Amino acid sequence: MQIRTVAAALAVAFVPQLAAAQAATTAPAAQPATPVANPVSSAFRADESRVGKNLIAAAEQMPADRYDFKPTPAQMSFADIVVHLSEGNDFLCGKIAGMAAPSRTKVDAKAGKDALVARLKETFAFCDQALAGVDDTKLGEELPFFGGRKMSRAAIMTITTGDWADHYSQQAIYLRLNGHLPPTAKKKPAA
User: Which of 130, 131, 161 is nearest to 38 (CA)?
Assistant: First the structure.
């Protein structure tokens, strides 16, 4: 009985180390991960690119005659969402980048699908340009924001990411309520 107890104790103590040593000799050495320069701003730009494509695709997908759709009278219409996103993109991306938003002729919700989609594309193009120079060195810088308050650049980036997600969610629901799958729900073609 003592021999079994000692053998079991030795197995518990040494088998994991032996397995690890064997794996180390048979597996190629793992390369250390290369650190990403400016991980926060890089992740934010990647999010802007991905979400921008989805928001534009959703705006393109909604039929023109359904741009006035809203599930309840208290909610924004689909067109109102696109207008809000366009105005928000110019303001938020400009604020984050520390540059003035472009001066554009106002496009309202009644302008029609083509004008609204074109404006949304313009504002995401501005975001691409404005955000290209943003890095992590000034994330803590306090910037003037809505209501006369100040917020850090990082906080405004977080608010912007949340705003895009919120409005894509709205678009996706509105599309589904009108019998359309939102862009992110469609199956990807096989490679």
Answer: 131
184, 57 contact by CB (below 8 A): no
The separation between CA 99 and the C-alpha centre of its own chain, rounded to angstroms, equals 21
CATH for 39-68+75-182 is 1.20.120.450
Give residue 5's pLDDT band: very low, low, confident or very high (50, 70, 90). very low
Distance CA 47, CA 45 (A): 5
Neighbour count for residue 23 (Cβ, 10 Å) = 9
Quick check: 161 pLDDT over 70?
yes
How many beta carbons lie within 10 A of that of residue 150, not counting itself?
A: 10
Q: CB under 8 Å to 120, separation ≥6 — which residues? A: 55, 56, 59, 82, 85, 86, 89
Count helices and strands (H / E) in the chain.
5, 2
DSSP summary character for residue 58: H
Amino acid 186: pLDDT: 83
